[in-house]
Structure formats: structure tokens, C-alpha cells
């Protein structure tokens, strides 16, 4: 069934179709509609879940962790300040190997206070052990909630998954979305079978106080699980594609890269505009949609380094290293493998529109760098007082 | 009601835990679990309780045990209960939180859980300071007490503020059941934990739990000190059941608070003036709880009823 709905509504349908059993939540713009729609589904008896309207995001993540540890499939959603408020608890979920799915609707972190899209909320949580996937449209939002559980609950992974979705550009914008049939989703995603859970018939401790004799091994196990997800993510994508007919690729998606001189790497909704813009360059510029930021697709990026003469990297967040976090990590991945120019394109911070004009400029600068011209390594697009 | 001797011998909080000998928290947990039984799941926030009962690779509780952070007991027990409810499992979900984790950093979380009337038992183990981090003051630390952040120095001597009245805050949430307890009063203790077990909705059990190094007491004296806490009015045993307030144990004779204070190193530096202020505060609380003034010998008419709101600074500004 096709419906014309907002990204937030689409996410709520995703949680419902995935049969999340416990949903704790706290409202924050632009995530609010997700919570409201789920509250309505539950109140109308359309969704068989326990809805918990908590008194803060810290409590949301705490209750979610506890419910998941007790064996329930959980879902929640937040944004920005809410995600920051959860920070402490995010670090608990991954090493406890709890396959929670939480959507983050990207919104700038104060200060300056703003409610529009920037990635400095979710990217600040990159070291928490959560897998992060960035979403391009409302259909992908729904699909990645469902795939998120498949990835998270895979026994080789058992990690929480955070689909990240551009605030307003998707959350409050309607698009046609194909809602899969419940029967099909049930076949694709069976009920949650925890590997362990807190059960009085089989008492165990979750969350011990841990001396240094054991923490290194625990970190390593979590690292191995993140690595294992690199295999599981494309597998789940393929399985999903064969059932539902929509294939988003693996950790990255390549668009028109064959025969290109350079590639531009984008994330989220900017990718959609870039799909149009690269056509103007008659095959010289390919597009790479960075889907997963965790696990970071280092192998795929090294492969790009060997195939193209320059990489342009779009960042919607700043690391205060001079450039953005994706730029820094792309360079780190290429280190020792390739010395092609990597050009950072900062744009859309605080939710500023990223228009075709800026993307065109990103392509041009990346091409000029490939041609040996001295191009600034970090470029602030459409920023007053900063010439590009 | 079960008598102490009829409680199951099998402990669910077992030997091998690493609490100090005489720890009021450990004794209270052990006895509460004997009453709650095996069909119980426990959450413990950051506190002495998590270190002494769940340091990897050991476990001192024979019931499922979760720990995640410090300020979230109300939320974690809510989440646990939600999952069991969804699975159709009837389990006692219990949080064992310290005073720091309840009065201060966890107040929002416990208030949220109480307001939502979550079907859980919240037990506050009140040793009147942050013991796990080395005896810092909390909102529960009594007036005059030495802690590492209320030192006995040249200008100030111990904590200058009075203890926050947490049970009254919890009672204001109109929860089905609230009780104050002490393991030194076992019949009352058993009756209250048993009652909490049978009622559904949010239940708040508040236990006063002496701490050997934190109170600077003899490890063999925790029970005696608890008794004295009740006899002086520093602790009152009462309950709220669906809004009905009832004192459940009334000491035969009110004792001077000084007797309680002088048994504990944390109070021993207190000046006569400070002891008098403390006595005035206790007399006021006694009046509130028992509905009549304390004995004229302990609470003479000239003793000013000490109010928390009147701090030294305010006195300076507004006169006595
Ligand atoms: C957010 C956060 N702040 C501070 C701490 C450090 N901390 C751990 S336990 C504790 C004090 C616990 O005091 P209380 O709740 O009274 O329990 P007790 O150890 O006294 O039984 C503190 C401050 C922490 N773990 N988390
Ligand atoms: S420090 Fe105090 S609360 Fe902690 S274990 Fe020792 S006696 Fe118990
Ligand atoms: Mg304490």
C-alpha cells in the first residue's frame, strides 16, 4: 500500500511493522511526530506495544536498555539535545550487546539554538558502539528501521542501530512511501529471540562493575561485533531487496561512478540533489552515498582511492580540527594507500539549504584538485565572509 | 504476618559480597530479599551496593541483577517492568538505590516513575552521604555531620543544612504505598516489605542504613544506632497507604538527640549551640509525625523550632 506521509510518520510505521514491544519516548522537535504517531497506534490498538511517556531522554534510554535486557524488542527516537542527554546511556547499550533501534532525527546541537538539520548530534556519538546509517528519503527511513532490527539482532552483531534522518527535510516533508504488508515483514523479521535476558528462572548479572583485568577484552569483543556488521549489513540489504524490491547497496552506494575522474561523497538528503547535479558533468564526476558512518567503510574508501583521481567529501558537521568528521576519517582510511587529493566541502550547517549551486561548486573544486590545481583542502560553502 | 524466625533461611544475598562488616545497606538488602523471594529482578545504580554485590566475575545476589548508571533507578525499573508485563511474566521488580541516587541526581527519575505509578518497588537505602565515592554530603546528610565535602574546618563545622524530607516529597506523588523502615525493628520491617510485595503500583520503601566508615561508628553498633535513631526522633517509622498516614512504631520515651549524635564520629565535633539547633529541628519533626510535642524534658518551650529555611545567613540578615 502506498501512502503519502512525512518521514516521521514513515518511521512510526517502521516501528509498528517491526512489532516493537516497548517504546519509551520523550518529545523533541523534529522527532515529535514519531512519538505522537506511535502513541496513536498504541491508543487505537493498532500496535501491540507498551508505550512509556518518560520524563526525560536520559530516562528513555535507561528504560529502553532495561526493557531490552529483560528480553523485549524496543524502539525509540530522539534528536539533538535529547541525544546529547542520552549520551551516558548510549555507551551502556553497545557493550551490553542490546540490539535496540533508535531513530535520530538530525538537528543542530546548541549553541546556537536551532532546530534544523546538522549532523553534530549523531556524529558526536560515533564512539559509543552504535551503528549509524544516514537516510536519503522517507521510504529508506521505514526500510532502515526494519533492516535495523535484522542487523542489530543478528547473532554476529548484537549491537544497537541508529538510523539518522535529516530533520524537517525528511521528518516534516511528505513523500509517497510504500508500506510493506505486515505478513511480509513478519517473514523477513521474525520475533525477537534474545541470546540472554534477565530472567528469575536463570539469574545472571548484566552490567557488572569491572576491574581493568577484563575491560580490554570487552572492548575488543564490541569492536569485533562492529567489524562483523560490515558483512551482515550487505547481506540484510540483499535479503530485503529480494523480498521488497528495494536495494540501497551496502555501506555505501555508488551512482554514476563508472569511468568518472573524481567522486563526490555525500550523506542524507543532499545525495538526492547531487544525483541531479552530477549529470551536468558528463560522466567526469561520480557520486558516492555514504550510508553507514559506523561501521566506517574504510575498505570501500580505499577502493575509491585506487579508482579515482580525487575525492570530494561533504560534511554537515564540524570537528574543530578545521574540517568535518567524515573528511578526517576518509583521509585516515586512505593513509598509506593513496595520496589523491581529498577535498572537504562543509555545507548545510544549522540546517542551511544545500542547493544545486553549492553541489556544482563542490564538483568543480574536486575536479580542479584532480587536475593538479591548488585547491583549499577545506571549503565553507555559502558562508558569509568566507570565499570559496 | 511472617515472624523473623519463619523467614526462609535461604539467603538470596550471599556470602562473598564485599560490603564492610556492619554495613546497614548490606543487612537491609539481605533481609529485604529474604522477604521478596526468588521471583525478583533487581536494579542497582552506581553506589556501594553495585561494587559489593556485582564486581566481575562475582555476583552476590541469586536473582537477576542489572546495573547501568547512577541517576536512573526509577527509569530502569520502569523499563524492566514494561518488558515483563509485555511477556506476561509476573515478577517483583525492585530498585535498590542510595540516598545520592534518590534524593539528588536521581530525583527526577524516581519522581517520573512515581507519577506514572509504575508497578515496581523502589527501595532507598539511606546512609546519608555518597559513600561509594568517599563520603561526600548529599541532600540527605543531617545538619552538623562531617563529610569530606562538609569538613570540620576553622570557619564551618560540618553540614550547615538540614536533611531533606524525601518521604514527604514521595507522599506528595499520591503513590499507593510508602513506608520508612529500619532493620533494627524487624517485625515492622517484615510487615512493610510483605505489604509492599502484595500491593500493585509504585511502592517506595525508605530504609535508614548506617555506614561504618561514613558515620565513623563501631561496626558492631549499627543496629543499636538505628534503634537510637528512632528513639530520638531522627528517624520515624511510618507508612502511607493510599494517602492514609500512620505511625507504625512509637518509642516509649523520647531520648535526647545528643545520645544519638555522640555515638557517631561524624557528629562528635558539634558545638552545644549546634546540638541545640539539631534538637529544635528534631522536636519540630517529632511534633509533625506523632501529632504532639516531644517530652517537655527533651523539648522545652524555650527551644526554638528549627526550620530548614532559616540558615545562618538568613539569621544574619533578618535577626533570629
Ligand atoms: C552521573 C554520575 N555522577 C557521579 C558518579 C559518581 N558516583 C558513583 S556512586 C556515587 C555516590 C553514591 O551515593 P549514594 O547514592 O548515596 O550510594 P552509597 O554509595 O552511599 O550507598 C557517585 C557520586 C556517577 N557514577 N555517575
Ligand atoms: S562504605 Fe558504608 S555503605 Fe559502603 S559498604 Fe561500607 S559500610 Fe556499607
Ligand atoms: Mg549514600
Explain how this protein is built.
The complex is a heterodimer of chains A (388) and B (320). With 388 residues, chain A is α/β, with parallel strands linked by helices. Chain A has two domains: 2-244, Rossmann fold, CATH 3.40.50; 252-380, Rossmann fold (3-Layer(aba) Sandwich). Helices cover 38% and strands 19% of the residues of chain A. Chain A has helices at 7-17, 32-43, 57-69, 80-93, 138-153, 182-188, 212-244, 270-277, 298-307, 325-334, 356-370; strands at 2-6, 22-25, 50-53, 74-78, 101-106, 131-135, 161-166, 174-178, 205-206, 252-255, 262-266, 285-290, 292-294, 310-315, 342-346, 378-380. In chain A, β14, α10 (325-334) and β15 (342-346) form a beta-alpha-beta unit. Chain A is globular and about 70 Å long. In chain A, 56% of the residues are buried. The mean pLDDT of chain A is 98. With 320 residues, chain B is of the alpha/beta class. Chain B has a single domain (4-318), classed as 3-Layer(aba) Sandwich (Rossmann fold), CATH 3.40.50.970. Chain B contains twelve helices and eight strands. Chain B has helices at 24-36, 48-53, 73-86, 100-104, 107-115, 166-171, 186-198, 212-215, 222-232, 257-261, 272-290, 312-318; strands spanning 40-43, 65-66, 92-98, 121-126, 177-181, 203-208, 237-241, 244-249. In chain B, a hairpin with a 2-residue loop joins β7 (237-241) and β8 (244-249). Classes of the chains: A alpha/beta (388), B alpha/beta (320). The A-B interface holds A 21-22, 24, 49-50, 52-56, 58-60, 62-72, 88-89, 92, 96, 198-200, 203-211, 214 and B 38-41, 43, 50-51, 54-57, 59, 61-69, 71-72, 74-80, 82-87, 91, 108-109, 111-112, 115-116. β9 (205-206) of chain A pairs parallel with β2 (65-66) of chain B. Bound molecules: thiamine diphosphate (TPP), iron/sulfur cluster (SF4) and magnesium ion (MG). The site of iron/sulfur cluster (SF4) has 12 residues of chain B, from α2 and α8.
Amino acid at each position: 500500500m502506498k501512502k503519502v506521509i512525512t518521514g516521521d510518520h514513515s518511521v512510526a510505521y517502521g516501528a509498528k511493522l517491526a512489532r516493537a514491544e516497548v517504546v519509551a519516548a520523550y518529545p523533541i522537535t523534529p522527532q515529535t511526530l514519531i512519538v505522537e504517531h506511535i502513541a496513536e497506534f498504541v491508543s487505537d490498538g493498532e500496535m501491540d506495544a507498551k508505550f512509556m511517556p518518560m520524563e526525560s531522554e536520559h530516562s528513555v534510554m535507561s528504560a529502553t536498555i532495561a526493557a531490552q535486557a529483560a528480553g523485549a524488542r524496543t524502539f525509540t527516537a530522539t534528536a539533538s539535545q535529547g541525544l546529547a542527554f542520552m549520551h551516558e546511556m548510549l555507551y551502556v547499550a553497545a557493550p551490553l550487546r542490546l540490539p535496540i533501534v533508535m531513530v535520530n532525527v538530525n538537528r543542530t546541537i546548541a549553541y546556537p539554538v536551532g532546530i534544523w538539520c546538522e549532523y553534530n548530534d549523531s556524529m558526536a556519538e560515533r564512539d559509543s558502539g552504535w551503528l549509524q546509517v544516514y537516510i536519503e528519503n522517507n521510504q529508506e527511513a521505514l526500510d532502515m528501521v526494519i533492516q535495523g532490527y535484522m542487523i542489530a539482532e543478528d547473532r554476529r552483531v548484537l549491537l544497537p542501530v541508529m538510523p539518522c534522518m535529516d530533520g524537517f527535510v525528511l521528518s516534516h516533508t511528505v513523500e509517497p512511501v510504500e508500506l510493506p504488508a505486515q505478513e511480509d515483514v513478519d517473514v523477513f523479521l521474525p520475533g525477537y529471540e534474545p541470546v540472554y535476558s534477565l530472567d528469575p528462572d536463570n539469574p545472571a548479572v548484566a552490567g557488572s562493575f569491572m576491574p581493568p583485568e577484563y575491560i580490554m577484552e570487552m572492548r575488543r569483543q564490541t569492536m569485533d561485533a562492529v567489524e562483523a556488521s560490515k558483512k551482515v549489513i550487505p547481506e540484510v540489504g540483499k535479503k530485503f531487496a529480494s523480498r521488497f524490491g528495494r536495494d540501497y547497496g551496502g555501506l555505501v552506494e555508488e551512482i554514476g561512478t563508472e569511468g568518472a575522474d573524481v567522486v563526490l561523497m555525500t550523506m542524507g538528503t543532499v545525495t538526492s540533489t547531487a544525483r541531479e547535479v552530477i549529470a551536468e558533468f558528463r560522466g567526469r564526476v561520480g557520486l558516492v552515498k555514504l550510508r553507514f558512518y559506523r561501521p566506517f567503510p574504510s575498505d570501500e574508501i580505499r577502493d575509491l582511492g585506487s579508482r579515482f583521481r580525487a575525492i570530494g567529501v561533504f560534511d554537515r558537521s564540524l570537528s574543530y580540527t578545521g574540517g568535518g568528521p567524515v573528511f578526517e576519517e576518509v583521509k585516515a582510511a586512505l593513509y598509506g594507500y593513496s595520496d589523491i587529493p581529498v577535498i572537504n566541502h562543509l555545507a548545510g550547517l544549522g540546517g542551511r539549504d544545500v542547493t544545486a549551486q553549492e553541489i556544482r561548486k563542490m564538483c568543480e573544486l574536486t575536479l580542479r584538485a584532480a587536475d593538479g590545481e591548488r585547491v583549499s583542502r577545506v571549503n565553507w560553502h555559502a558562508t558569509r565572509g568566507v570565499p570559496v | 504476618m511472617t515472624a523473623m524466625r519463619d523467614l526462609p533461611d535461604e539467603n538470596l544475598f550471599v556470602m562473598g559480597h564485599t560490603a564492610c562488616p556492619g554495613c546497614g545497606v548490606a543487612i537491609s538488602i539481605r533481609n529485604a530479599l529474604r522477604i521478596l523471594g526468588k521471583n525478583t529482578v533487581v536494579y542497582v545504580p552506581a553506589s556501594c551496593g553495585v561494587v559489593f554485590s556485582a564486581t566481575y566475575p562475582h555476583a552476590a545476589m541469586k536473582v537477576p541483577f542489572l546495573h547501568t548508571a547512577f541517576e536512573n533507578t526509577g527509569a530502569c525499573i520502569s523499563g524492566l517492568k514494561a518488558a515483563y508485563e509485555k511477556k506476561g511474566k509476573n515478577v517483583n521488580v525492585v530498585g535498590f538505590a542510595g540516598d545520592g541516587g534518590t534524593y539528588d541526581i536521581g530525583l527526577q527519575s524516581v519522581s517520573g516513575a512515581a507519577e506514572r505509578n509504575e508497578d515496581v518497588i523502589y527501595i532507598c537505602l539511606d546512609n546519608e552521604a555518597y559513600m561509594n565515592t568517599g563520603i561526600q554530603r548529599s541532600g540527605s546528610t543531617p545538619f552538623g555531620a562531617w563529610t569530606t565535602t562538609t569538613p570540620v574546618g576553622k570557619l564551618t563545622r560540618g553540614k550547615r543544612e538540614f536533611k531533606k524530607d524525601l518521604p514527604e516529597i514521595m507522599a506528595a506523588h499520591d503513590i499507593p504505598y510508602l513506608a520508612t523502615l529500619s532493620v533494627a525493628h524487624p517485625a515492622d520491617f517484615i510487615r512493610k516489605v510483605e505489604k509492599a510485595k502484595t500491593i500493585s503500583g509504585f511502592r517506595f520503601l525508605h530504609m535508614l542504613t548506617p555506614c561504618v566508615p561514613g558515620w565513623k561508628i563501631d561496626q558492631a553498633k549499627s543496629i543499636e544506632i538505628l534503634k537510637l535513631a528512632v528513639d530520638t526522633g531522627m528517624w520515624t517509622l511510618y507508612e502511607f497507604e493510599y494517602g492514609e498516614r500512620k505511625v507504625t512504631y512509637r518509642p516509649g520515651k523520647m531520648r535526647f538527640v545528643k545520645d544519638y549524635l555522640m555515638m557517631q564520629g561524624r557528629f562528635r565535633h558539634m558545638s552545644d549551640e549546634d546540638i541545640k539547633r539539631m534538637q529544635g529541628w528534631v522536636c519540630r519533626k517529632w511534633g509533625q509525625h506523632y501529632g504532639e510535642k516531644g517530652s517537655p524534658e527533651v523539648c522545652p518551650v524555650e527551644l526554638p523550632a528549627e526550620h530548614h529555611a532559616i540558615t545562618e545567613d538568613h539569621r544574619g540578615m533578618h535577626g533570629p
